[in-house]
């Protein structure tokens, strides 16, 4: 009884797995934020796979309770998808939604509805800078976002992998597109391990704008804009911990722009450089302006978007005060016609100041060492960035040209080979020519051609190499030398890992050149003779049972003794010295 229950459980699980895999969504992931345009509108891109036939894919988006958004009902996003994959999109107003996707065939749902929660249309920012943009001191701990609508890709979820990233700068060692709330212990890929004050900025923006916010960060403590410039343009430099050979620190911009930004889009870059570029000479301002301009140019080139917006913070205060040269350079860089905007005025945050707590003024330290922000300084910095982003003169959000998300690549087809057709034709010389066409191949090693005479049992008669991986149309052919009144064929498609699947079975009816060949007597009890075979000297006779298994064989003779066979139906293969083969069916009694 236990065995029966176990068998039933396995069968149920297998059935459930098949049912589930009939239709699946590959993209988007939960909590993703797609950049909205200046009209508060954006697109959610959707891709997925199916293993059962569908002729339509629909999606609907429902705004979440207590959050902004305008729901839409079931909307067709793809029709007549092929090769087991689909893609489409829906346009939505800014806000956050629960997304549902379903596949249909003749208006009947196929598989289960797929549900993806907390999909957003909002604001996406990319942070660059030094330690006052990345944080990291125990003297000034970070706060996590209070709003669930502030997100990042947290690199701390897989520390060993992220450690490898810092040793290699290989973007494959960055996290996948998996988003989470920007919590107190969460970082921001590619390079930040804590939220710093950006979580507080996110809360302010969500509250004011009513849309979700996503942060990426390439901030690198100890760096400056000069190192970003040199690593971007392959100009060697020496540094105790910034690895030029990995093209750090700019590699964090390049990798994030290539790996993450195409999927989400981007409002712009928030730059906090300046303090570490103070050199105390007359050229520091000119050099800062040149270096930052070249980094902007490179980032736009690698993002493939010449209008990529930058906000340049006014930030060059340290223990010696403010560098007027760099502050002037930062202000001079602002050029609205070139999508460069004035960022937070961080110079206005001095070391000491006053805050109001419970309605009472309190003297506090904003920079615990004269440069880096304290917890009070973090709150002040978040407020300064908020004011810069939401300022009405000019308004960054209405004046900038955001980089919109692009459609993701199609997922791999769940079908290793998509067979468009498989046909057979009897040629004038009596041979059978098989042809087949694929429209997609994935890890396809080869095809084995199998033949049978009863449509049930088959044997391998040849092999044709596959193209491996292809999304193009591929044509194949194989000629069977056998001469038979009817033969059945199927293809065994074999993957590189040895897994295989069979095609449908086709039948080819022949008109063999040895159509006068016959066997006698039929039915037969003992001695079977071949008569009328015209195309050369007989080489061999082979007796096959109905499973196409050879049970008798004779060489260089026109007779074969079948008395040892049990009564039933058999086939005889008659082959000459040229390799020509004729098949006839007989009955043994």
What is the topological layout?
Blueprint: H1 2-21, E1 23-27, E2 33-35, E3 41-50, E4 56-63, E5 72-79, E6 85-93, E7 95-105, E8 108-128, H2 131-134, E9 150-152, H3 159-168, E10 180-181, H4 198-209, E11 213-217, H5 225-232, H6 251-259, H7 261-264, E12 268-271, H8 284-303, E13 310-314, E14 317-318, E15 321-322, H9 324-333, E16 340-345, E17 352-357, E18 360-365, H10 375-390, H11 396-399, E19 417-426, E20 432-452, E21 459-470, E22 474-480, E23 482-483, E24 486-495, E25 500-502, E26 506-509, E27 518-520, E28 527-531, E29 538-544, E30 550-555, E31 559-561, E32 568-576, E33 581-588
Parallel strand pairs: 2-8, 8-11, 8-12, 9-11, 12-13, 13-16, 23-33
Antiparallel strand pairs: 1-3, 3-6, 4-5, 4-7, 7-8, 9-10, 14-15, 17-18, 19-20, 20-21, 20-22, 20-24, 24-25, 24-26, 27-28, 28-31, 29-30, 29-32, 32-33
Mean pLDDT: 90
Structural class: alpha+beta
Strand content: 35-45%
- Tell me the name of the CATH homologous superfamily of the largest domain: SGNH hydrolase
Note the overall shape. Answer: elongated
Over the alpha carbons, how many angstroms does the gyration radius reach? 36 Å
Low-confidence stretches: 1-20
Fraction of residues in H or I helices = 10-25%
**Which CATH top level class of the largest domain fits?**
Alpha Beta
- The termini sit apart by 46 Å
Number of DSSP strand runs: 33
How does this model look, in words?
This protein has 589 residues and is α+β, with helices and mostly antiparallel strands. The protein has eleven helices and 33 strands. It folds into four domains: 20-120, Immunoglobulin-like (Sandwich), CATH 2.60.40; 122-399, Rossmann fold, CATH 3.40.50; 417-509, Immunoglobulins (Immunoglobulin-like); 518-588, Macroglobulin (MG2) domain (Immunoglobulin-like), CATH 2.60.40.
